[in-house]
Hints:
The complex is a heterodimer.
Chain A lengths: L2 E14 L2 E14 L3 E5 L6 H9 L6 E6 L2 E2 L7 E4 L11 H5 L10 H14 L15 H14 L4 E5 L7 H14 L9 E5 L3 H7 L2 E5 L6 E6 L14 H20 L1
Parallel strand pairs in A: 3-8, 3-9, 6-7, 7-8
Antiparallel strand pairs in A: 1-2, 1-4, 4-5, 9-10
Chain B lengths: L1 H11 L2 H4 L7 H22 L10 H46 L1 H14 L8 H8 L3 H25 L3 H9 L4 H38 L5 H10 L3 H29 L8
Amino acid sequence: MSAYISIADVTKSFAGTAGRIDALQNVNLDVPAGEFLCLVGPSGCGKSTLVFIIAGLVKASGGEVRVGGKPVVEPDPDRTMVFQGDAVFPWMTVAQNIGYGLRYSGVSKTEQDQTVKQLIDLVGLTGFAEAFPKELSGGMKKRVDLARAYATNPTVLLMDEPFGALDAITKEKMQVDLMRLSVTDTGQRRTIVFVTHDLEEAIFLADRVAVMTPRPGAIQVVLDVPFPRPREASIRLSTEFQALRGQIRELLVTEEEES
Amino acid sequence: MKQDKLTNSADAISEDATKKRRWITGEGAVSIITVLILVALWTALTDSYIDDLYFPSPMDTIQVVGRMEGVLVGYFLATMYRVVVGMLIGAVLGVVCGVAMSWNKWINSVLDPLIEGLRPIPAVALIPFFILWFGIGDTGKLILTAIGGFTVMVVTTLEAIKHVSPIYIMAARTLGASRLEIYRTIILPAITPTLIGGVRVTVALSFALVIASEFMGAQSGLGYMIMLARRTLQTDAILVGVIIIGITSWIVDRCVRIVGNYLTRWAPRSE
């Protein structure tokens, strides 16, 4: 398969209070259409910055990101994002939040309402359409966030540690739901770039795991995750799974020591 | 999955919903008792130690209201008109300018020195000029009140916009919202709770400015009435004026809070 997202020589530096900070240096990475790619790396290695650049929210200092052949210059509802923090708009109801992107998509109001209704059921929030986010638990808010990102039917989904703040059980449920929902309306798999520091989460979800180096971040190695889909939660306990986890952990620890 | 939904919905039922609404709360009763004790103390003290000239008794005060009823209503309405209209003009202009300044850096460059120059000057200091320019009618008082409200609201708006969480703006951008739509659907609702706070400050300030400008030159209004009463040592009339201003200011603030609570009913509250 050809690269759907292609990241070529991307560099990013920030002007910080303590001088210039090089966050990313010559990042090269190709993600084929329909792949689920997880980005892992030591904290501060710029993995979040990289997805923000793919989203078009942050401009790279050098290099280029192309999605579907077109260079990324600004955000586009075909590339939606789920953030680490709580990005659900507190002044909108669950239904209004989920339908937010649809307002600007040009589809009719009836069609919008229909999509929102389906998504509410799909993420298990039936009966909460008119609730304000303050009435929801952390896990439920994250479901609203996910549904909102799915609503515009994007081909690319960018996720920056979306489940980082959730408890272990809720997190597992969300991961299973995510796998179930990562297919477009026409049955194609979405291309997903998922940032996490949780190695089990990365292996459970991904087709490939990209391991980054400490700052300035670059891609150290990209590993294939060989487990067939659909994956059961119990695969985490298998020796192969744990061996892969140990291998990635080793890579992260050695890099940290060297730097 | 079904189990999960059930537990989730149980969590989501907020405590408020299960609490019964009562006519009066324990805290409310205590507040009422405080007021009653104060009135009793007032009656007792003015009956014995305090000379009526320095501080009139409750009975005297009530009698004055009966005696002055005709002019009182007219003065009250004159003051209210100045407060409400002046405040609205100032607050609306303040919010509009604040939003415009955050929208465009050139608008900001033009308005910022003007506002920064105006802001440190207490508006009351301008009253002599306003009387000179606009006379002792409504115009000068409305402009003065509007200036007071404007400076409060423009600063409140700018600060509030600065503190809108960037995550909301980024989320809206990735979902395809234009800059105008982000202002309309994200920034405006996000700053509303802070703006309500600014409006409450503006209400109090507007009363102060209108009364002060009525002291210095007017032919109607509660401030004018207090000024006349001072010249003739009618302390009971002064007290009536003060009480009416106090009660009205409280009622207007209450209304702002009720409307504000409705507009920000989505916001989590720590109570």
